[in-house]
């Protein structure tokens, strides 16, 4: 989610001439050198009535003053209202760079998720792993559906690329139940971290990953693949990371096992940028496989 600056305004100082009776002989300065200065009596004009307006009243001087007063009052009210909003929710109006500065003591490892607030781990912390061991990776196959039993998620998956800024695209906002798989990385089930993204909400309703922050260590995630198999992942941990200090290596770094990353927005919604300031990131490891329903 810019303003313009107005320069200082002012009018030249008004100087009135001396009054007709202020130049008495006693008041005149005595010249030191040369001829005495010339003094002239000011011409005093008789008072004149203001120019009548259309309705016979005086011209719009008083109306202009009233309009200026009203404009000044409106400006003050607007400023006060804005300050009240900012003071009530300062984190919603601060810049992303300022938000990043608030990240202080990072956790040594990614937390298990579930109850309690989520935190961000130190950049050197490895991806969290569940207690269950990994199973061997499979051959690549396009993911078609994502299922998270605990959260009641059963969503189609579409492939997404990167935008003109190099950031991963998000799935279409027109379908709140759609998940995007980053096609520039591994597919779910092959070696390496498969990355999937979903919206937290839309302008009118909650979306597919609105409850992603509730997932926790040990929960299951299933990915139905085009080749007829289902990759079963077990959650190792969840973190809430500031977008300005996103843990790129932990999320996208190469891995020998088949792993999964689920990402959505989280934290405070910044009114200035129109975006949430954090990401919710789920780390999972493939711990099983099976044929998709209806396949032998």
Automatic annotation (TrEMBL):
Sequence ranges of Pro residues compositional bias: 32-53, 125-140
Region (Disordered): 1-60, 111-144
Pfam family, one: Sortase
Membrane among keywords: yes
Signal peptide interval: none
UniProt keyword terms in alphabetical order: Hydrolase, Membrane, Transmembrane, Transmembrane helix
Transmembrane stretches, start-end: 67-87
Name this polypeptide is given: Class F sortase
Organism: Planotetraspora phitsanulokensis
Lineage: Bacteria, Bacillati, Actinomycetota, Actinomycetes, Streptosporangiales
């Amino acid at each position: 989610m810019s303003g313009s600056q107005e320069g200082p305004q002012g009018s030249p100082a008004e100087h009135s001439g001396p009054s007709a009776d202020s130049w008495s002989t006693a008041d005149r300065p005595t010249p030191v050198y040369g001829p005495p200065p010339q003094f002239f009596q000011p011409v005093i004009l008789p008072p004149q009535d203001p120019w009548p307006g259309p309705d016979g009243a005086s011209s719009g001087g008083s109306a202009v003053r009233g309009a200026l007063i009203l404009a000044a009052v409106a400006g003050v009210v607007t400023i006060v209202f804005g300050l009240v909003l900012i003071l009530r929710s300062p984190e919603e109006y601060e810049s992303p760079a300022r938000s990043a500065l608030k990240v202080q003591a990072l956790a040594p490892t990614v937390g298990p998720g579930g109850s309690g607030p989520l935190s961000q781990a130190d950049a050197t912390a490895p991806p969290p792993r569940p207690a269950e061991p990994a199973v061997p990776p499979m051959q690549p196959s396009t993911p078609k559906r994502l299922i998270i039993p605990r959260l009641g998620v059963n969503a189609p998956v579409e492939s997404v690329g990167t935008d003109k800024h190099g950031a991963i695209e998000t799935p279409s906002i027109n379908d709140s139940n759609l998940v995007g798989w980053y096609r520039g990385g591994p597919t779910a089930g092959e070696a390496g971290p498969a990355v999937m993204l979903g919206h937290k909400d839309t302008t009118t309703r909650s979306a597919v990953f609105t409850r992603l922050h509730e997932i926790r260590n040990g929960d299951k995630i299933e990915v139905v693949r085009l080749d007829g198999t289902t990759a079963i992942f077990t959650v190792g941990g969840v973190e809430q990371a500031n977008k300005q200090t996103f843990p790129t290596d932990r999320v996208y770094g190469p891995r020998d096992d088949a792993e999964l990353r689920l990402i959505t927005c989280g934290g405070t919604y910044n009114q200035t940028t129109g975006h949430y300031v954090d990401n919710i990131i789920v780390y999972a490891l493939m711990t099983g496989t099976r044929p998709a329903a209806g396949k032998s």
